[in-house]
Amino acid sequence: MYTRTAGTGVPLVLLHAFPLSSAMWLAQRGGLAAGAHVITPDLRGFGGSRLGDDEPSVDAMADDVAELLDTLGLERAVVGGLSMGGYVAMALARRHPGRLSGVILANTKASADTPEAAANRETIAQRLLDGGDLLDTVPNLLGSTSLERRGMVVGRVRGLVGSAPAPAAAWAQRAMAARPDSFDTLRGLNVPALVIAGDEDKITPVGDAEAMTKALPDARLVVIGHTGHLSAIETPETFNREVAGFLAEQIPFSGSRP
Predict the structure, then answer these.
(1) What is the domain extent for residue 30?
(2) What pLDDT does 245 receive?
(3) First-last CA distance in the chain
(4) Among 84, 91, 195, 249, whose Cα sits 20 to 30 Å from the Cα of 174?
(5) 257 domain residue, yes or no
(6) Is this entry keyworded Hydrolase (predicted)?
(7) What is the mean pLDDT of residues 204-219?
(8) Rounded-to-integer distance, Cα 13 and Cα 70, Å
(9) Model-level pTM?
């Protein structure tokens, strides 16, 4: 996995949204580096990471993250995921629970796709492989405030979406369509959790975040105002403040580093 890192402190792995890359975490690598060892990998096929030839699966992506922790010499880390990254974080919690010292679930949900949603993902995957693009998804990714007032954010997201390789995007759509319900995994999670939602998120509304918070044994919910599906990009100062507070209050750190 191609990985960007910054800072020292609590190991913090941040997993990116679909169809972006670790480049989306620019503000987090800068804003959280004072108190965390920020680790931002590119998931399969995105950015600088290879797609490989495995069947589409969030489990495969989660296993990649576990291998990355091994490579970095980290027994445990706080793992945060936004949107698709949240699905991968929950798969990691299911398959490798001992690797987590905390979890951050932003703009994501624990429920599986409905049959209709899974069929739509397959349609999108096939369209991408036939030469289509994903730029028409940009308005859904961003909240109304960003679309109306944050022109630089809109331009940046368009650039990130436009650079997504079609094979990786199609593979990821099929992986997300096949993912299981994760509520049982959340109920069994014995580490602190931070759940983040955007009040303008149309893809994973606040109700999805509330459901995850209720399922988790030790969780706090934060709803960020004037924010859509990409909270870390749309309102990075607020996102970073909430994450930094969570790390400082909930996650013990010995000071050791690999």
Answers:
(1) 3-250
(2) 95
(3) 18
(4) 195
(5) no
(6) yes
(7) 97
(8) 13
(9) 0.95
State how far Cα 176 lies from the chain centre.
12
What integer pLDDT is reported at residue 250 of this predicted model?
A: 77
pLDDT band at 229 (very low <50, low <70, confident <90, very high): very high
Torsion angles phi and psi, residue 4, rounded to 5: -105, 140
Tokens of 127: 């369209």
The total number of structural domains that make up the chain: 1
List the CATH number of the domain containing 94.
3.40.50.1820
Instruction: List all residues 6 or more positions away from 29 whose beta carbon is below 8 Å from its beta carbon.
Output: 4, 5, 6, 7, 38, 40
Residue at 56 is within a domain: yes
* H-assigned helices in 81-199: 84-95, 115-129, 138-141, 144-149, 151-162, 166-177, 183-187
How many other C-beta atoms can be found within 10 angstroms of the C-beta atom of residue 208? 20
Q: Is residue 255 part of a domain?
A: no
Q: Which pLDDT score, from 0 to 100, does residue 257 have? A: 38
